[in-house]
Amino acid sequence: MIDRLLDSPHYGERWGRHWLDVVRYADSNGADENYFHDNAYRYRNYVIDAFNRDLPYDQFVRQQLAGDLLAKTDDVDQNFRLATGTGFLTLGVKIIAEKDLVKKQADIVDEQIDTLGKAFLGLTLGCARCHDHKFDPIPTADYYALAGIFHSTSIQDRKLETSEYLERKSAYDEKLSIVQNRCDKLKAELSAHLSKEEIITREAEAFDRGNKVVIDTDKYGAEIGVVASYIDQGNEFEYDFDITKPGVYQVEIRYAAAMIRPCQLFVNGELVGDTVTEITGGWYPANQKWVNEGAITLREGKNTLRFTSGTMAHLDKLRLTRIEGEIDLIATVEQLKVAKQELDEFISAAPPQPVLMAAQDGMVQDVKIHLRGDHNSLGELEPRHFLSAVDSKDLKPLPQDESGRSELVDWLVKPDHPLTARVLVNRIWGWHFGKGLVTTPDNFGTMGARPSHPELLDYLTVQFIKEDWSIKKLHRQILLSSTWQMTSDYTGGQEADPGNELYWKTNIKRLEAEAIRDSMLAISGELDRTVGGPILAGIASKNLSAEDIRKNQEIYVTSPRRTVYLPVIRTMVYDMLTLYDFPNSSAPTGQRSSTTVPTQALMMMNSEFVTNQARVIAEKTRLASTESKDERINLLYEQLFARRPTEEEIDQSKEFLAEFLSLGSVNEIFDPEQEAWSSLIHTLLMSNEFIYLR
Fold first, then answer.
1. C-alpha pair distances (Å), 115 with each of 92, 318, 398, 428, 665
2. 70 pLDDT above the threshold of 80
3. pLDDT at 121 over 70
4. Pick from 75, 206, 498, 613: CA 20 to 30 A from residue 460's CA?
5. How far is the C-alpha of 368 from the C-alpha of 390, rounded, in Å?
6. pLDDT given at position 233
7. pLDDT value of residue 32
8. 640 Cβ contact partners less than 8 Å away, ≥ 6 residues apart
9. From start to end of 50-182, where are the E strands?
10. 580-619 burial, b if ≥16 CB within 10 A, otherwise e?
């Protein structure tokens, strides 16, 4: 049975959620600007997959801290997976509106160091930012040595390829070339009849009317001048042309673009279509390129060309050239207009390249010690290195062309490292038993608890490393032990060991919030067992209105997905989770609290989700059983409690049903008999036996 459960794809969902607690996983930024993280889910899925594949823990650590440095294989999917692991470094809360960019970066690095220390080492490294650690041998110099590694690391959304994307793009490119060639052929046909005299050229920045656009003559427009916009703000700008010879004119625009930022072109108020839809290779003057945007019809006298855009490329010049000669201009222009529209639609439907929150090396640098943690008061430069107290002989200089993250991982996962493996083994033990052998799993320092069984922790750690850092083998070793298989009944050890420090019995444990919700969905048959997948759509996170909160709640209540896949919105976590001690996703949490408060019972009593699940279970048991109430009650107890009810419980259940029906229905929508069963089931779902494991 143990092997069957470990081989289940749902094992990774259950145990991956434990790790997500440790790495402060969330789907929004939190703090002042609670932006939604559209791609954080890729890291969540990576963690679940890593647990399911039994990725050796030393490799798991390496991929989360330096996966991007390993992503240099010929396998694009492997490269994507490796880079996704570095999402670990990107998940922390950031003060987006911080105007002091140096302080902002220092705060980001501080959060990374604090999480690294607690997650992998069980040390509170963040305490050494302002002064030498008060209790542990971690000098401020060590903190800023580590800070140099992360100041040399950039975190951002990155576009990477996968095999699925490349396959879709190949098919798309093949079809695009057909549409593009048709358009180019018509453009060439018109270009062959260009006038040598009727040519009008305008500097892009010399528009007649406009709003919100930027005229740049210093950086992107050095020596040439460009019109641009760097934020999406509804730009409009117009050019007036006095045409003496009406007819068809070819439109060319000279611009620079590192990515597609289209402008819509209107001629005399009529929409022509998208322009500026090509990538020229960059944003600078050297990347400026003339692009044929097709043909337009201009009347005699004043004609107005209007461009609208969000963010836009860097436009340098416009050129209008009259088309003349032996050609059916009207028919050709109309064909080009249709072809261009088809091309624009095709370009807008391009398969999106996968984006992930990931790290990569930035500008490599050592950092000066910040006196009292103040970035405006700098001390001596501290070369990048690791913790001097753990292994002083490894304080050799790190490479000048890389951040040092790869070397940091080499140091962390050395077989003789005193902390990395021990911390993980203690976490696994704690997640099985409800408390670790060290009851402060995020603090192995002086202020942390002493191991209750130090020899056992050492033994399990040595075996863990010998078994190639396999978490699943560690599970088997623990689960096959007599310690794990103890009963929760009292067997005489209460007086000698009331706190069960010697593990003479199994502690009764309450289910986590996720397990409570998922169990109800599983019993009702509504649980969506799909593994992985994108984030649930429609969740709002920033500047939440009452309506946003209502819509979020509706999604949480109606979604059949496992709870691990529900979006975690910092500052606005689903209330069913928070009431049952879901961790603060802004900081590492190695062990959740387990509280018992009245609001938990009130929530279960009044929850729309619990009410709905009770009704579904009632209908399910009605269809699955005969008219016998005893048989239906038996089925309920088997599904909810994995046991048959006692005769007394059967009698109590029948009395409950009879009394409920005698009071009369309070809901005209539902059948009174079914409502009575739903209320009985709702009551059983609220019971301690359903929520607690013995």
1. 9, 53, 22, 18, 54
2. yes
3. yes
4. 498
5. 22
6. 76
7. 84
8. 523, 681, 684, 685, 689, 690
9. 153-159
10. bbbbebbebbbbbeeeeeeebeebbeebebbbbbbbbbbb
